[in-house]
Write a structure and sequence with these properties.
mainly alpha, 2 domains, five-stranded mixed beta sheet, 5 strands, globular, D19L3 mannosyltransferase, mannosyltransferase activity
Length: 716
């Protein structure tokens, strides 16, 4: 490792890299190599102990979340249909493809069924491998078929244990990242403990197992650990090449397992861009990271049969624009402060314009509209005009896509994580501003500042990256609650690194004129140990109580519905309903669907809006015509949607449909001036009255306290 110290030439980080550094040869355990045998043995012992602790904590985390899952559902004791129902919404859809591959007569037939799928969307044949990120289900199903474990382990357990096992990889990666940043494995221990004690805000794997982010985030954490190591200076060429390979593999696996990969990596690319512009990272390594992001995403694009949404991603356009802009502005990092700021302004403007032009050109050529709902949602969310768009409002009204609740910070503060995080963040941000100003200043200013003690403030490249990474992902989490898991896990790493960092305590003690080397070392180890003891004392009893609390899965109405469908409808029957419920219908019964929760397709979004007219104010003739146009044989109505009270007025599904259809909403409250009363009553309410105008088209064939199933008449 090295530090970004006072520049003696125009170039900042690159020049510093060529000079010897006091910390150039510091090992991960924080000890400087010595020819003395005792020193080497101590280093080996420290690394060995740190590695054992990392692996142990990873495995304990896996066992912990697996036990919570078992205790919450009594998963080992419930029926197969109940296990499958527990995979709610899109989780059930993804798991259904794993089940489909397991039950196929051969691997080849299973793959053929995914590439030419006509059961996920009725009257359409789609390529599941192109549309969805399910290669992990394919790989896992093939692995299960070829391994001699069928007699000992059920397919569902092989699946969930793999996900829980990835949590071990996740925790180990966080541990290693913190260790690399601070130089001591005590920091990794603290990061892992914070991750576990803040489980409510760092992961949701125990109750949303097949969710794409639970596959992807462990690989993202591995990628960040590899980048942290890559940004250390004085790496041997072989070490650098191997690290680049590790970064590429982690980036590829992250991209392959989550459809939102491009947006997360765009934020990462922005972090690299900011730091490169401020001369805080070596340009050559940043270039390699840009290329790795592009190549990893393009490889995924090939595997997903040239998915147009990937080709039209902002990430590819942005990275390409940065590389092009660099070739145009070759002397970007030369000159005085004002000169550099002027060049940077033009550089940012050029990159922004090129990104928009390239992205617009690609989308025009490919006629790409798959991700337009995301930009409509962002436009409405950040106040750039109200929208009547159904898809955008559907996202806006979901709590997961709202602002991060304030009670999140109170929970994070209970473990001291948030307090430590803010302390380290402020200190590192001040240091970053000073270093950035110094890097952008000309040589004359540098010579004058060299005489001042304040110029000893340094910021290592890996620490600088970690700082900007946590700031950008923090902004994302604050604006969208669902994305908080990307921030809170790195918050554990960043806070623990700061608490165990010599540089942080050195800067703090110098500010109060109390710095000595010995005092900094004592604080560096004593404060983290005290924090660990506090966390253990306060939260260990709660964790034990949580592990001893036993519950059981209970959803008799949904179980009854699934059993009725399997017993009383043909295998070729087509079902319409809410996209969340239909994912479970596909998994539990194998019936054909009209729509589903994987929303990244324009045709599917339009289809879903049409299907949802069953909850709007439409005539029975209109609803029947719409449903039959998608080949529907049965429609499932849910009282929880028809009479919804979970959302406030204006955010209920029926309200969104009324506004999209130009109708006045139900209940007391204001309506927009352009809305008019509907000529028809609400379909889902009126159909239950068995009026002749409805029974002509729909016949009720099943009902319980929650669901009503109607069979559609097949008029010629």
């Amino acid at each position: 490792m090295t530090t970004v110290r006072q520049r003696r030439v125009g170039k900042g980080t690159e020049a510093a890299e060529d000079q010897p550094s006091e910390e150039a040869d510091v090992k991960p355990d924080g000890k400087i190599p010595s020819d003395h045998t005792g020193g080497k043995l101590w280093n080996i012992l420290s690394i060995t102990v740190g590695g054992i602790v990392a692996i142990s904590l990873g495995l304990l985390t896996s066992v912990y979340v697996a036990t919570l899952h078992e205790n919450d559902l009594w998963f080992s004791n419930i029926k197969e249909v109940e296990r499958e129902i527990s995979f709610r919404t899109e989780c059930g859809l993804y798991y259904s493809y794993y089940k489909q591959m397991i039950q196929a007569a051969s691997i080849q037939q299973g793959l053929h069924g995914l590439v030419y799928d006509n059961k996920t969307e009725s009257v359409r044949t789609i390529n599941i491998l192109e549309r969805m990120n399910v290669y992990q289900e394919v790989f896992l199903s093939i692995l299960y078929r070829i391994l001699p474990i069928q007699q000992y382990l059920e397919p569902v357990y092989f699946y969930i244990y793999t996900l829980f096992g990835l949590q071990a990889v996740y925790v180990i990666a966080l541990y290693v990242t913190s260790w690399l940043l601070s130089g001591t494995w005590l920091s990794g221990l603290l990061a892992a403990c914070w991750y576990i004690t803040n489980r409510v805000d760092t992961t949701r794997v125990e109750f949303t197992i097949p969710l794409r982010e639970n596959w992807a985030l462990p690989f993202f954490a591995v990628q960040i650990a590899a980048i942290t190591y890559l940004l250390r200076t004085h790496l041997q060429p072989v070490q650098e090449r191997l690290t680049l390979v590790a970064v590429f593999m982690a980036t590829f696996l992250f991209s392959l397992t989550w459809q939102f990969n491009q947006f997360m990596m765009l934020i990462q690319a922005l972090a690299l861009f900011i730091l490169d512009c401020l001369d805080m990272l070596p340009t050559a390594k940043v270039t390699w990271l840009y290329i790795i992001q592009i190549s990893g995403l393009l490889l995924v694009c090939v595997l997903q049969f040239f998915n147009s949404m990937i080709l039209g991603s902002l990430l590819i356009s942005f990275n390409a624009s940065v590389l092009i802009a660099r070739t145009i502005q070759k002397n970007l990092k030369m000159g005085g402060l004002l000169n550099r700021l002027g060049k940077l302004f033009l550089h940012v403007l050029l990159v922004l314009c090129l990104t928009l032009l390239i992205n617009k050109f690609i989308k025009k050529i490919l006629n790409l509209e798959s991700d337009e709902h995301i930009f409509k949602f962002l436009k409405a969310k950040f106040g750039f005009g109200a929208t009547r768009d159904f898809d955008a409002n559907l996202y806006l009204c979901e709590e997961a896509f709202g602002l991060l609740p304030l009670n999140t910070f109170s929970r994070l503060s209970d473990t001291l994580l948030f307090y430590v995080y803010v302390f380290v963040l402020v200190l590192m941000a001040v240091a970053a501003v000073i270093v950035a100003f110094r890097n952008l200043s000309g040589s004359n200013q540098v010579k004058l500042m060299e005489k001042m003690e304040e110029c000893t403030i340094t910021l290592k490249p890996d620490a600088a990256y970690s700082l900007v990474h946590t700031v950008l992902f923090g902004c994302l989490a604050l604006s969208t609650m669902r994305m908080k898991y990307l921030w809170t896990s790195h918050m554990c790493v960043f806070a623990s690194f700061g608490l165990c960092s010599t540089e942080v305590w050195k800067l703090t003690l110098k500010c109060v004129h109390l710095y000595t080397s010995q005092r900094a070392q004592v604080i560096k180890y004593s404060i983290p140990i005290i924090t660990l003891l506090y966390i253990s004392y306060k939260f260990w009893p709660g964790i034990m109580d949580e592990l001893s609390e036993l519950r059981e899965f209970y959803d008799p109405d949904t179980v009854e519905l699934m059993n009725w469908i399997k017993s009383n409808t043909p295998n070729t029957a087509v079902f319409a309903g809410s996209m969340q419920l239909l994912a479970g219908v596909k998994l539990c019964t194998g019936r054909t669907l009209t729509n589903h929760p994987h929303y990244e397709d324009k045709n599917l979004r339009e289809r879903t809006k049409q299907i949802y007219q069953i909850y709007a104010k439409r005539s029975p003739e209109d609803v029947h015509r719409i449903l039959r146009s998608f080949g529907t044989d049965y429609v499932i109505l849910e009282d929880s949607i028809c009479y919804e009270r979970r959302h406030s007025r204006g955010c209920r599904l029926r309200d969104l449909l009324d506004v999209a259809n130009g109708h006045i909403m139900d209940g007391l409250g204001d309506n927009e001036p352009h809305l008019k009363p509907s000529l028809y009553p609400r379909f889902c309410e009126e159909i239950k009255k068995n009026l002749p105008s409805y029974t002509t088209h729909f016949t009720r064939v099943f009902q319980n306290k929650t669901f009503h199933v109607y069979k559609l008449a097949k008029h010629k």
